[in-house]
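Let us practice reading a record.
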Amino acid sequence: SWSVSGTLPGSTQTERWQTNQAVTGLATTAGTFEFIYYHQYSVSVSYSVVGGGTPAAPSLQYSYFGGSKSAELTTSPQDLWVDRGPYSVTATLGGSTQQERWNAPTASGTVSVPGTIVVTYYHQYYLEVSGGEISSQWYNSGDIASVTVPRVFARSGGEGFRTTAYALDQQLITVSPAAEDITLSILMDRPHTLVLGAVRQYEVALDQGAVRALNSITAPTIAGDEYWYDSG
């Protein structure tokens, strides 16, 4: 009969070099045995949800004795032996939609020491913006989304646009010609839609001779905005 150590000397309660091969046997023929020991750490894993809601639980993907393994996380810590190396978790939890989600900003990492992994998921709502040059964006539940609506945008080659109105969740607000951009503060307690309305503008460009000879010119649509005019 023969036997070898399943755990190598130098291992502790939180760090070990372990094999999952049979460590005892009976020699009946000549042969060669090769044992592979995996460097492993003990880690405490759990997850938390910020902002409320009841999404599905995430899964942890990690390496265990060189193979891929999965474990469902709970909000209470659970101890696992994990191979030294990378791990990943569910980035967006089940129950999420295109307008509401539970998302983890960091969904992967590397186990290189014993310790604790707590994955934090944030309850988020989507602000969908159409028109203009403002990007749609996710915001944490309860946050105030500060959105700056430009008075003019996309000006190039003598053409551009002026914001004339916006509709927040279908409530229409008309925008008078103004020199300042418009700042909206939106409470993200639910998904919102923001639709921007605009009119095309054209520029009247005067060379130096025209400027010297200028007697009068219609005031621009926005005071002091020389010389941009709404189409028509």
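A brief commentary: The chain has a mean pLDDT of 95.
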